[in-house]
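testing teh design pipeline on a random one, pls ignore if ur not involved
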C-alpha cells in the first residue's frame, strides 16, 4: 500500500501536530500520519490526495485551486535537492528517518518554504519548526 500525496503535503506532514481544517480532516490525517510513521511509502500525485479527501465534498474545496497547484510546484522544486529523484506524479518515496531529518532541517532553515507563502498555517508551522518539531505526530 502507498499513501497518495501531492508535493506540498511532503512539507505539511513535517509539522503536523494534529491541527487542521475540521475534525474529519484531522482524524483522516491522523490515520495517514500513523501509516507514514509505520514506514508506508508515498506515491506522489498531481492534484487532490489522501489528505485532501475529507474536504473534497465541500463546495469550492480549495484543494482544486490553481494556487494550490502552484504550492505543489514550488514544494517539488524546493525538495528536489533532498530527494533521490524528481518529485513528480508517479514517483514513489520512502520517508525514512534520515530523509525526514534532512527535510525538517531544510524546512527549519527556510530552504523549502516557498510553497508556504500565503498559507494560513504558516505561523503554526514556523513555530513547530522553531520548537525543534515538538509535538509532531510523525516522529
Ligand atoms: S505553512 Fe502551509 S504549506 Fe507550509 S507546511 Fe505549513 S501547512 Fe503546509
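output:
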Amino acid at each position: 500500500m502507498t499513501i497518495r500525496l501531492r508535493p506540498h503535503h511532503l512539507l505539511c506532514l513535517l509539522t503536523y501536530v494534529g491541527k487542521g481544517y475540521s475534525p474529519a480532516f484531522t482524524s483522516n490525517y491522523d490515520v495517514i500520519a500513523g501509516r507514514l510513521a509505520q514506514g508506508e511509502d508515498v506515491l506522489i500525485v498531481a492534484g487532490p490526495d489522501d489528505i485532501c479527501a475529507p474536504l473534497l465534498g465541500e463546495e469550492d474545496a480549495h484543494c482544486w485551486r490553481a494556487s494550490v497547484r502552484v504550492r505543489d510546484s514550488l514544494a517539488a522544486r524546493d525538495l528536489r535537492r533532498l530527494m533521490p529523484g524528481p518529485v513528480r506524479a508517479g514517483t514513489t518515496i520512502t520517508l525514512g528517518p534520515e530523509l525526514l531529518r534532512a527535510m525538517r532541517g531544510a524546512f527549519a532553515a527556510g530552504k523549502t518554504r516557498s510553497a508556504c507563502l500565503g498559507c494560513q498555517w504558516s505561523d503554526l508551522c514556523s513555530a513547530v519548526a522553531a520548537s525543534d518539531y515538538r509535538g509532531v505526530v510523525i516522529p
